[in-house]
Design goal:
about 110 residues, alpha/beta, six-stranded mixed β-sheet, 6 strands, acyltransferase activity, transferring groups other than amino-acyl groups, Acyl_CoA_acyltransferase
């Protein structure tokens, strides 16, 4: 599934980032100018998604790439009615800074 990049922009990002689900690889990919600049690795069943690890290309760190990935993944999982389990330390930290995004999310201890 491809997400409209205009709906998933981070303040301070000059260029658009498209987010696409790559289920064969078990990851969401952030794409800028045709290049994957970040990934969010997951395991998914019909009813649940486990968010395992988030990676941003070092050249694009600090540009909001990971935030775009997290927001998009959470939105799609909620829309699909999936339970969301967070294992990734980055996402756990991100959720502390964005408590409005915690709805329906379980953070693994």
């Amino acid at each position: 599934m491809s997400i409209d990049p205009d709906d998933h922009r981070h303040d301070g990002i000059d260029e658009q980032i498209a987010v696409r689900d790559n289920p064969a690889a078990g990851r969401y990919e952030a794409v800028r100018r045709g290049t994957v600049v970040g990934t969010l690795i997951y395991e998914r069943t019909r009813r649940r998604i486990e968010l395992i690890h988030t990676v941003t290309d070092p050249a694009h760190r600090g540009e909001g790439v990971a935030s775009v990935l997290v927001r998009t993944t959470l939105a799609e999982a909620r829309a699909a009615g999936q339970q969301i389990l967070v294992i990734c330390p980055f996402i756990e930290s991100w959720l502390r800074r964005h408590p409005e995004q915690r709805e329906g999310v379980v953070v693994e201890d």
